[in-house]
Amino acid sequence: MLKIENLHAEIDGKQILKGLSLAVNAGEIHAIMGPNGAGKSTLGYVLAGKPGYEVTDGTLNFLNFDLRDMAPHARAAAGLFLGFQYPVEIPGVSNLQFLREALNAQRKGRGEPPLSGAEFLKIARAQAAALGLDPEMLKRPVNVGFSGGEKKRAEMVQMGIIDPKFAILDETDSGLDIDALRAVGAGINTIMRKPDRAVLLITHYQRLLDYVRPDFVHVLADGRIVRSGGPELALELEREGYKDIAA
Amino acid sequence: MTALPTKRDETWRYSDLEAVARVWPVATHAHVVPAGETLALPILLDAADDAVTIEDHEIEIGASAQAIVHVAITSGRLGRVFVKVRLAEGAHFELTGAIVGGGSDTHEIVTRVTHAEPNATSAQTVRIVLGGQATGSYLGKVAVARDAQKTDATQSAKAMLLARTATANLKPELEIYADDVKCAHGATVGELDAQALFYLAARGIPPAEAKALLLRAFVGGLFEGTPDETRFDAAIDAALEKML
């Protein structure tokens, strides 16, 4: 589904990713772990196409699309979803308005008819309920005044409504208490644990992996994947730290 | 005042005097709001691209009376609304304004508000969106007379520039002779938030739609729930669409 080869990327002329290769197949959940500054978030931004992140070498293929040629909104319409480490607050725009516009823009990009207000509302309410987010919060401006946990739940509600093929979740577990972590974990499993979906979980810690069991774990250090393994690798990292493994 | 204004006059400093000359002199509309009554004054300037429109108003607001002025300037080479206000005891003045300017438009809202007696309140809110080489100005002055204790006056002006070639002039001014008053003023000029634009893009919203969404959030809602909402918002939407 996603095939990255020899990816080199920089921001402001500073090389962050230095020859990263990774293949993710449909039905798989991969975790990317690594120390601060390894390039984990950069990988997420490069995949989603954030302005300022420049790919200088390598290939990025997603479902036979060359991502390098695609604008961020087109990548989303193709089925790519980036869950933000720090979801952005947008005063004056309600969650419902934002998500309906997003979903219908994606459907238009895929040649599907737009959803009516009633159809959309039904989906939005169901997803909010599934993630334990008060549906009333959907009427409020995007992320404004939301607590850290509410923002991350809201990201998962967005993911449920948009229903992507591939999700990159950047530290979705940071800033969550145990209940929120459990809800978010269950959300990822329900929405994305399917034969035709795949997930890239970017995380510092093992704890989210207790709820979302990865098929593969990779260690990212200094812009490259230095080790790959099964779920046991995450436990080993938790026990021994990144220092020896990444060296 | 029949002589053509010059840029030495502060209220005309940022104007398009060549355009002004085409319509000068301009008649002043005088309004008197009797004690306890309400004046609603909606001013929508959305004439064609080359139009020059200057609206000049003087409002005397009687004791405990109020004047609610809604202004939207959404097209025309020069659109100017000048409002001079005098508030008597316990009176209330409200000005809500939106400016959307593109091309080489000059759009301006100029106010001169005098709190002449105690316990009067005034609130001015202006939002400006500018692209191209447009100039948008809010020049607002609040004067509080020596006897006008317990005055409560606010001015909030915010401008959003879509191009580095556009110009916003925001000048809230205060002249206070009383000592027990509340006068708040704020002015900011900014650009669309790049983080918010990327967030919207990452959820599948194309750039033009994303910008429109953020701009509507910025200028929208100003007239929500008022009788002018539909008419004003339609003009604002059309102007924003033309610019993106």
From TrEMBL, chain A:
The keyword Nucleotide-binding applies. Residues 2-247 form the ABC transporter domain. Pfam families: ABC_tran (PF00005). CDD domains: ABC_FeS_Assembly (cd03217). PROSITE patterns: ABC_TRANSPORTER_2. The keyword ATP-binding applies. Keywords: ATP-binding, Nucleotide-binding. InterPro entries: ABC_transporter-like_ATP-bd, FeS-cluster_ATPase_SufC, P-loop_NTPase. It comes from the Bacteria. PANTHER family: ABC TRANSPORTER I FAMILY MEMBER 6, CHLOROPLASTIC. Belongs to the ABC transporter superfamily. Ycf16 family. This is Fe-S cluster assembly ATPase SufC.
TrEMBL record, chain B:
SUPFAM superfamilies: Stabilizer of iron transporter SufD. This is SufD family Fe-S cluster assembly protein. It comes from the Bacteria. Transmembrane segments: none annotated. Residues 46-218 form the SUF system FeS cluster assembly SufBD core domain. It holds the Pfam family SUFBD_core. InterPro entries: Fe-S_cluster_assembly_SufBD (IPR055346), SUF_FeS_clus_asmbl_SufBD_core (IPR000825), SUF_FeS_clus_asmbl_SufBD_sf (IPR037284). It comes from Sphingomonas natans.
